[in-house]
Amino acid sequence: MNTGLKANFMLLIVTIFWGSSYLFMKMGLVAVQEFNLIALRFGMAFILSGTVFHRRLIHVDFKTIKYAFWLGTILFSVFASITFGVKFTSASNAGFLVSLTVVFVPLLLAAFFRKMPENRVILGVLLALTGIGFLTLKNQFIINSGDFLCILGALIYAIYIIVTGKLTKDVDSITLGVLQLGFAGAWGLLFSAFLEQPQLPSTTEAWVSVLELSIFCSAIGFVVQTAAQKYTTPTHTGLLFSLEPVFAVLFAFAFADERLTIKGYVGAGLVLLSVLTTQIDLKKVLKKQGFRKSNVESELTH
């Protein structure tokens, strides 16, 4: 298995973990406040991953710390939006709306490099907007605050993916991945100290939620993502992450008995289709298939 394939496989495992995260966030928010949950999630993840990779942290340089500060700050912004959003919408809705990250990545890349997005990206955006409408708009044509915050989180997360892809190229990516967790947790603790009453989970369900979010979704998830992105592209990363809402719905259905309305399923399908449309270049796929077919026919005739 080559390095790029290994990186993509690692990102797929991470995607499964993150598909479960919306359910566990809802569980945790029953007993723990929003910034407190972020502080616990990323603080514990930093301690766990820092313990495993402590030898790398000893030799950390200022550049890595600086990069980790910026990534941790963006990461905190992402999860402040998503955590508050999950509180006011369903885990299924959150999963599909956050998957719009995959649509935002090529749009932002096009904007940063001042070139028009490809036609498939434009089509993906139109499908996504239609899907969001079916998924979130009620009779009053108003998106509720939870859905809006999840969409905002998706936009910030797209920025995070692009910035991560740039910053991992010339520093130790694992050290960077560990330190960013510490900075994200520190921001959560700071906001919680000023706006909430920080506390440890008080119920078994809340502890299960925090531990799952800390170990699998954060300690393993973000360190693996940061390390794997060094060997793959932001577009490939986005394509694999497009499966996240599928896992989110499966977890929400299996463990929380969540079900979408018919209109919701139509919207969810359109959002997923928009993600796939944005990431898969059908022209290249068809061209490759045509090339292979011509080669086979040529071999048969000779």
TrEMBL record:
Q: Which GO terms describe its cellular component?
A: plasma membrane
Per UniProt, subcellular location reads as:
Cell membrane
Query: To which protein family does this belong?
Result: Belongs to the EamA transporter family.
Q: Which organism is it from?
A: Paenibacillus sophorae
Question: Can the keyword Lipid biosynthesis be found in this entry's annotation?
Answer: no
Query: For this UniProt entry, what is the primary localization, expressed as one broad class?
Result: membrane
Membrane-spanning residues: 7-25, 37-55, 67-88, 94-113, 120-137, 143-162, 174-194, 206-224, 236-256, 262-282
SUPFAM superfamilies xrefs:
Multidrug resistance efflux transporter EmrE
Q: Which UniProt keywords apply?
A: Cell membrane, Membrane, Transmembrane, Transmembrane helix
Q: What is this protein called?
A: DMT family transporter
